[in-house]
Amino acid sequence: MPACMEAAGALAFTLDGQKVVVKAADVDPSLPLASFLRSHLGCHNVKVACGEGGCGACTVLLERQDPSTKAIERHTALSCIKPLPSVHGWNVTTAKGLKDRSGALHKRMETLNAAQCGYCTPGFVVSLYDTLTSAGGDLTTDRLKGELDGNLCRCTGYRSILDVCKSFCTDAPAHLRPTTPDIEDAIPPCKWPTPVPQPLPSTPPPLLKNASLTWHTPSSLAELHSIFRSLRQDGKVRLVGHNTSVCWQEKAKEEECVISLERVEELAGIHVTERAIRVGGQATISELISVIDKEATKTATYAALSAHLRHTGSKQLRNEGTVAGNLMLVKTMAFPSDIAPLLLAWGCRIEYIDLDAPTPSAAQTQMVDLEAFLVADAPKMALIVAIVLDKQNEGAFFRSYRTAMRKHYAHATANAAFWCEFSPSSSGVVSAVRLVAGAVSDRPQRARQTEAFLLEQGLTNKTVTRAIEMLTEEVTIGASSHDSESYRKSLLAGYLYRFLLECINRHDNTRTSTPSPSSTSTHSTTTADTGHLNGTTHTDTDTDPDTDIDREGGGARIWQPLAKPDNERLVTGDAKYTGDVAMDKRALYGAYVTSEHAKATLLRVDGSEAMRVDGVVDIVTSEDFTLNRMINTVTAWDTNLLESVVPIGGQSRFVGQPVALVLAATEDTARKAAHVVKVEWADIQTPVVTIAQAMAAKREYKKMFEGRKGDIAPFEAVFSSRGTADLQVVKGKVDCGSQLHFYLEPQVAVACPDEDGRMTVHTATQGPQYVHENVALALGLPQHKVDVRLRRLGGGFGGKSTGSVPVAIMAAVAARKAGRPVHVSPTRHQDAAMTGGREEIELDYEAAFDRSGRIHAIRASVHVNCGCAGNLAYMCGKYIAEFLEQAYELQNFYLLSKLWITDLPMRMPVRAPGGLPAALAIETILDHIASSLSLDQADVRRANHLTETSLTSAMYVNGEMAAAPRQLTVPVQIARIHDEVCASSEWGRRVAEVAAFNKAHRWRKRGLGLMGLRFPRPLFASNAVINVHVDGTVLLHHEGVEMGQGLHVKVIQVACDTLGTRLFGYPLPASLVRSADFATEFMPNPWLTAASSTSERMCFAMQDAANRMAEKLMPFVNQESADGQVAERWKEVILAANGAKVNLQQQGEWRPSSGNVIDFYDTYGGTVAEVEIDVLTGEHSVRAFHMSYDCGKSINPLVDIGQAEGAAIMGQGFCTSEQVTWDATGRLINDGTWMYKPPLAPDMPTDFRVHLLDNSAFPGGFASSKATGEPPLLGSVSIFLAIQQAIRSARSDAGEEGFFTLSTPATCAKIQQSCGTKIEDMTVEAAKRGE
C-alpha cells in the first residue's frame, strides 16, 4: 500500500495484551481486522471461514475503559467484518489471549472433546467466555438460553460444546461436575480474572487513507458536518457505524470516502426518562436490549420487544450493529429488517439532521415518525441522531412475529409487529391499533385499511377472519428468489390470527383454550428455546470435565476415550491449517475471476484495468498452460473431469467456473482487482439445469446402474393391477434436494517453487494423491519433483477429495509463472459455486406387500443430476442401486439408476453419498405401507428386518454384474437396535402422546419417525511407517489426512498400546509419540481419505508396523528388571538398539484378509425422532432424537461418539434447513451464509441421545471396531419422516387425506404450504380445539 501524505498519527490497539502501534501511512483502511491480524501480525489464532460475518469463526473480544467514567466496555465482535480503523483504542483478545483468564474453560474444551476439525473452535471459545462471564454469579443453564446463536460448527453436533458451557452452571448434570476440582475450578466464571484494559492514547483515531479510500473518525456532529461538506463535493461519501451491513450487502466499492460515526459523542448512549427511551444514533442493538430488559421488569409489554430483538442477527452482530444503521438500510437499500416493523408498530419517532444543509447551524434536528422517515422524501443524506420510543402503559398490548430459514441468525422471510389498546369501558372495543408487516417488500407496511376495520367493527369472533383477509389483500408482497408470494401471505395471515386470538383471550370473558404464544413465532413450536443448554443429552463417554487423561504414567491404550493430542492448540487457535502456512515477503496471493455464464464461449480476458491496481503483479489464464507440456485438466480415477480454468476459445461448463487468476501482493488487493477484470463471451446459451431438462435434451451419462435381487417378473401383473386379493401396492415419488459440504476451512493451496523446477504444494485436501498427480501433469513435471504437504483439514465431508485439485493446480501454475510462492483460496461464494455439493435425486417407486406390511417386491427408477460431468456423481447412482435395501429384507426388487448431465458444477460426494437418498427412499416406502394399512410404523419395519441369513443385492453397470450378492456382516444387529431404540425412546408412550396431542391441537402438530440403517463401508489396503528417535520419541507416518475425525489419536493409541504392551506389558505414554504431517515425499501414492474407513485401515497398518518394530526390539528388553516407568524402560531399549545399529524405522502394511484391495462390511443403527411443527408458519423443533449405533468395539469412544453426533446434526441440516437452489441461468442462489443455513446450537434436538451399542464386536474390523464418520448421518432421516407425519395430521384436519411426502429439505415454506391451511380455517371456533 502506498504511503499517503495526508495520513497522520498512528493506529493503536492491543492484541492479547501486546500493544500494536501502526503509522497511519502504513494502514490500509479498507482491511477488516481479521485480515490485518493474519497478514500483518501473523496472528493465525483468528480463523476466517466465510469473510462475511456469517459463521462466528473469527470472533474476538473487544475491551476498553472509558477514560473519564472508568467504566469498562466489553463485547464480542466478528473480526472478518470489523473495520481495522475502528479498533483504535481497543484491547483485542483472541482465544489464545483468554487462556490466562479462563484456563478452566480451555481445559474443559480439550477434555470434553469440544473440538473436532477445530477451525471453528477459537471463535467458540471467545463466545463461551463472553457468555459465561457476563451471565452473573448465579450461573444456571436457564440464564444462558439463546446466547450461543452466532457460532457455526460443522463437525461436533454441538453437544460437547454445550456440555462445556453447562459444566460451569450451578445446575450442571452430575456427570459434568468436576469430581476432583482444583483451585482454578472452584472459581466461578463471573470471578475469572478480567484485567483492566490497557490504557491507550486518548487521541482520536488518525485520518487513514490509501490510494482509493479515506477513513475519517469525527468526534462531534459539528466535526462530522464539516468533514462531510468538504468531501461531498469530491465524490461518494459513505457513513458507517460498525460496518455490520456487509453481512448482507457486498463490501463497499472503492473510490469513496468513509466517515465513521462510532465516536460521535452526540450519537452515543441510551437515555431513559419517565416518558420515553431515547436511543442514540450509535447505540447498539445489544445496548437497547439491555435497557428494554430492565423496562420489562416494570411493564410486561417490553418482554415481547426484547425477545424479538434477540433474533436480530447474532449476539456478535447485535453487539456492534446499531439500531439507527439498521433503519437506514431499510430506507436506502430495502433491507429486510426485523427492527423496523417493531419500532413502527411501537410508534417510535426519529430525530435526524440533514447533512446536506449548507451550514452546521442550518442542520437542525428534525423529528418525524418512523413511517414518514422511511417512506417519505426525507433528505437523502439524513443522519439519525436518535430513535425515541414512548413508554407503554399496561393497557397497551404488543406482539411481534417472525419466520426464517433457521430459528437464529437468519433474516426473516416475513415478520410482523402488532400493537393495540382497548377501550377501558368496553370489552373488545379497540381504541387504537397499529398493524405492521415486514420483510415481504422493500419497506415495512402499515395495514391501515385493516386497522380502520378493527377500529370500526371492534374485535369479535366474527371480525377475526375478515381482518385476516383484509391484511393479506392490503399488504404488497415483493419478489423473492426463494419464497413464494402465497407462502409469505400465509405467514402474515397466521401472525394476525394469533395476535387477534390472544387479544380475545385477554379481553373476552369467554376465553378460548388458546395458550398465549410467544412473542416471536420462531419460538411457537419449541419446548425449550435455550440453545438446549438445559435440554437432555446423553453419551456413552461421560468424562470428568477436569480430569486430563493420563498420558504419562498410564499410557495410551486402544478402546479408551483419549483426547486428541492437538486439542490444546485447536482450542487456543495455535493449530495451523494450510491457509496459515508462513509466507515470505515475495509471496503472491491469487483471486479468482469466474464465469458468469453456464454455457458460453470465452473470447477474451482483459486484465488491463486490474493490472493498473497498485500491488497487482500478473494474471493467469488458460494460455499459461501452453508451455512445457502443461495440461489444463483435472484428472481422477484415470478420467478427465473438467478444465482447471475455462480455455480461451473454449466453452464454460457452469456458472462460477474459474476463468482467470489475479496475482497481487495481498489477498485483499487481488480480490479487489479481480472485480475489474473484463471477460468477453459469445454464443451464450440457455443452460440445462434440471433433471427434466436434461431428459428432454437426452443428456444421459454413459453409465447406467441396476440393483437386482430375486425376480420381480411374477409381480408385474400385481403392479399393473395396483394390487390383488393377497397383495396391495403403493406407488409414490421421493425427491432429494442437494446439500453443500460447507466445511469451515475454505479450499486453499500454497505453491512454492524450488530449485531444479521442483514444486512444493501445501493443500487442504482429502486426496493428496490426486493433487500430486494433477500438479505434476499441469506443470509437465515428473512426480518425484512435486511434493504435496498438509497437516490437518478444517473439515472436508467429501468436498476436498477432488474439489481441492483445481485450486492446487492454479496455485502451482501461477507459482511457476511468477517464480514466487502463491497462495490461492476462493471466497466462500466462489467455493460453494465451484464444488457443486450433493446430487439432486428423483426416485419413483412401486411396492407390493401383504397385510402384515411385509414387502414382496419393489420396482424403482432413479434419476440423478450429475452436474457438468458424471465421473464423480456416478457413485451416488451406484450406491443407491446397491444400498436401497438398507436395514430391510427385499426379496424381490429391481432399481434402475440413470445419471443426467446438466450445466451445473460437477457434483462431488458429500458425506454418505448415495446412502442418504437410499435411506430416505426405503423409509418413505415403509411409511407409505404403514399408512395404507393403518399399522404402527414400528411393526412394519420389524416385519421387514434383515436377518442373519440375508444376502445383499447384486449391482450391475450397463448390464454387466459389478458387485455380486454377499453375506451380511454378522451379527446383524438391526432387530436388537430396533428394540433398544424403541425402548430408550419409549416408543409406545410417544405414539399415544403424539396422537392425543394432535387430536387436541389444531395449529401445532407432532410427528414421529423411526428407522433402521445399514451402510456398507469399505476397507482398503494401506501403509504406515514408524520412526523411532534415539531419545525414545516416536514419529508416525501414514496415508491418512486428519480432518477432525480423530485419525491421529487413534494411530497413536495403536502404536503406544502395541509397542508398550508387546515389550513391557503396559502401553507407552502418548507424550512420546507424534503423528507426522502428511507429505508425498515420504508417503507416496496414498489412498483417498474418505468413506469413513481411513482410521481403521491406518490402525491396521500401524499395528503391523508396531508389531514388526517390537520384534526388532524384543532382544533388548531386560526381562529381569521390570522396575521403573514404562517410558524409562522404553528409552533404555532404544538406546541399546541404536547402539547395536538396529534400523529404527519400520514400515507396516495391511490388506483385507480376502486378499482383495477393497472389502466391504456392514454398519448398523437405528433412530427415533419426535418433532413439532407450527401449522401456521411451517417452523419446527426436534423434540427428541435417539440413536443407537453399532460401531463394534470403539477404538476411542470419546472420538466416535462425537463423530456420530456431528453426522446426525449434519443430516438434520440436509433434512430441514440446508436448501440449495439454482436459478434458470444456473447460478447458485444459496452460495453464502446469508442464504445457506446449516443448523446452529439452538437447532439441536431438545432430547438428544446418541448411544454406541454395548457388547458389540466386529472380528473383521480393527480391534473389533467399525466406522462412525458417515453411517450415523443416515439416521437423521427419521427427523424428516417425523415432519411428514406431523404434516399428514395437519392435512387431515384440513380435509386432505392420503399419504403425502415432501422433497428435502423440509423448509418452513414447504411445511406450511403442505399443511393445506386456508384463511377461512382461521376462526376463533377452530382455536377452541387448542393452539
UniProtKB/TrEMBL annotation:
| Organism in which the protein naturally occurs | Vitrella brassicaformis (strain CCMP3155)
Residue ranges constituting the FAD-binding PCMH-type domain according to the UniProt record = 208-394
Please identify the protein, giving its name as recorded.
FAD-binding PCMH-type domain-containing protein
Recite the UniProt cofactor note for this protein. Answer: Binds 1 Mo-molybdopterin (Mo-MPT) cofactor per subunit.
Q: Name one GO molecular function term.
A: oxidoreductase activity
Keywords of the record: 2Fe-2S, FAD, Flavoprotein, Iron, Iron-sulfur, Metal-binding, Molybdenum, Oxidoreductase
Query: Which stretches does the entry tag as region Disordered?
Result: 509-565
- Binding site residues for [2Fe-2S] cluster 2: C117, C120, C153, C155
- At the top level, the lineage of the source is Eukaryota
Q: Which Pfam family is an annotated match for this chain, by its short name?
A: Fer2
